């Protein structure tokens, strides 16, 4: 049986090459991790902005819903009722209705009246 000795110089070169590859891979992985963390922070910021926008729209929606509900439940005060009654009996010419009533008739001016 023959015993072969391996060349120690070749073994050292193989190990050094392996170490260089490992260091390069470690560097690449570290860069990837840094890039991923930057992306995570950016995405988190975008999500936060979207959530803030959504909250704003939800608040605007709630306000609009409340205005619609209030308009549907309008209970005019005594003086307004008296004027509307005079309008019906044609005692006050030139009275065409409340702003809310006119806004329903003329959609073009409904938004500016608010």
Fold and architecture overview:
With 114 residues, the chain is mostly helical. The chain folds into two domains: 11-73; 76-114, no CATH class. It has helices at residues 8-72, 78-88, 99-105, 107-113. Helix 3 packs antiparallel against helix 4 (107-113). 0% of the residues are buried.
- How far is it from the N-terminal to the C-terminal residue, by CA? 104 Å
User: How many strands in all?
Assistant: 0
Shape: rod-shaped
For this structure, the quaternary state is single chain
Instruction: Give me the number of helical elements.
Output: 4
How much is the average pLDDT?
Answer: 79
Largest sheet: none
Number of domains: 2
Structural class: mainly alpha
């Amino acid at each position: 049986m023959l015993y072969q000795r391996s060349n120690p110089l070749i073994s050292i070169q193989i190990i050094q090459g392996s170490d260089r590859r490992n260091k390069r891979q470690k560097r690449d992985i570290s860069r990837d991790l840094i890039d991923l963390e930057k992306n995570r922070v950016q995405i988190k910021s975008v999500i936060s902005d979207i959530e803030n926008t959504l909250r704003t729209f939800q608040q605007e929606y709630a306000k609009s819903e409340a205005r619609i509900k209030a308009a549907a439940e309008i209970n005019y005060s005594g003086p307004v009722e008296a004027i509307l009654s005079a309008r019906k009996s044609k005692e006050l010419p030139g009275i065409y209705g409340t702003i809310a009533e006119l806004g329903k008739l003329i959609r073009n001016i409904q938004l500016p009246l608010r």
